[in-house]
Amino acid sequence: MLKAGYIITLLSGIGIFNSCTANFFNMQEYDKQYAYMQKQETVYGNYLAGRIAHIRQDYDNAAYYYVKSLEKGMVNKDLLGKTYIILASQGKIDKAAKYAEIARKNGDDNTFIDVIFAVRDFKFGKYKESRDRLTQIQEKTYQNLITPLFAAWSYTGEGNYNQAVAELEKLSQTEEIKTVYYLHKGLIAEYFKDPNTAQKCYDIVINDRGGDVSFRALQIITNFFVRSGNKGKAENLVSKYYGTSNIKEMLSSLNKKIKESDSSVPLLIDSANKGAAEVFLEVALLFKSIPAGYDYAQMYMAVSEYFNPDNDITKIAMADIFEERQMYKDANKYYDSVSKKSEMFYPAQIKKANNLSEEKQYDAAVKVLKKLLRDNPKNFQVLFNLGDVLRINNQQTDAIKYYNEAIDSIFYESEKYWPVYYALAVSYDKNKEWVKAQESLEKALKLSNRHPQVLNYLGYSWLKYNINVDKAASMILEAYEKEPNDGVIIDSLGWVYFKTGDYKNAILYLEKASELNPQNAVISDHLGDAYWLGGRKNEAVFQWKRALKQEEDNEDLNKKNVKSKIENGLNRSDVLTLKDEQLYHSLQDLENITN
Questions:
Q1: Within 13 Å, how many C-alpha atoms sit on residue 468's CB side?
Q2: How large is the average pLDDT for residues 412-436?
Q3: What is the SS3 assignment for 519?
Q4: What is the pTM assigned to this prediction?
Q5: Which of 170, 316, 405, 566 has its CA 20 to 30 A from that of 91?
């Protein structure tokens, strides 16, 4: 695996993307303009429709209207650049090459044009031409990584084993890409029916202590072992990672495939095109590992898909990029394209359900998860996710049912399971079953090694019910010391001061919480209360009115009570007293530090 610093070094100087994003305050207005521009058959109307679609990340329509603009005669460097980039990012390399060629004739020297040409030439067997295209690119990413790998597979396409290995040797001295070098050397050795070399290379990959073996590498290497008649070694390799992995379902599916296979299973990478697909997948995944590389990752992923549209890892990775951009429908198109027989089917469906939930399509998300559950009724992750979707949709009784079933499916208690107890507690609390909520929170607190979120929830709840005041304040203080920049925890700390009658410090912390979480209804309500009892009544009414309009935590807001406060103000309630002198002094010391 490449180190982040090495990837950043590779990124320096690379020139692919034209600037094509912008932030707008009123997207509804732009939607109206988009609808209007779609109806215009003018050159400029098509161009503006394409720009608005591009801003909205509607890439299909952006490409459609850009192409229409070009066809109607609008030819300029900026439009051509946007067109071939967006087409290439969708894997439409042949079409991208058409407009890249026009752009080059019009003086565009973007090196990605050469990449588009090289990829197209390679796909159609013009290996020398593709090498020549890439070799002339001087950027570090190409010289130090992409070009040697790409050239090696081009020589593979020409049947020249020795020259393919010679190209790979250019990577052999770079420690950061050692596993990449040996994986591709093994793949090429397999292609040329040199199992001894392949075996040596793969052994180096799986025994490398410097980095984790990717799932793709496991697929490739276990495929080799099975075809070599060594199914046991393939199973042992998968088992080696099963115990500590967070992708157990994928590993379990891979292990099942191994058990059902024999030495007649086909070679996984059986063409130069599929080898080139691995090159660009490898590069895409490397760039995807850092935020600055996401645009490059999408582009290289699309190229990989162009060479090999059947690789489900590419589909999952591309969908993940769309998720990061909150383009959930586009992501789910990729998830739906993953076959049920694939090792990637389970994670694809889990992610699809998560995306449906993000779009508030809760019933559809539940349907996807229940379908998975029918195939594996004791699956912890599916049960847990079902509980989450139902809890978010305020179906607390059903959520509690599935959370408890998830807990029943656990073979042994471990700190990694604390979130399910925490989520169960939230559902119990919302379902007005506080005693059970408290039991689950105490369990989560123990398993999580006193996680700040659990400390805060339990402490705040005790304050809400006016019980265990000292323990509640102590827990919230401990949570704050662990997460001093968490707005929700700071809100709870402000509430400690409020409940104990220190309105000056309550305002101080609640204002800070409001700055960090400006859309949180409960925090605005709390700040309004503190303002009122602190003598700032106009500001209090403003905050209460604001709380009624805010969406975050709106379901936890007592709206009837807030409306009453707006009309009648807030009566001073009984002030709670801290009996623990040390805790009292700790809060005073915190005041002094803050002030």
A1: 12
A2: 94
A3: coil
A4: 0.83
A5: 170
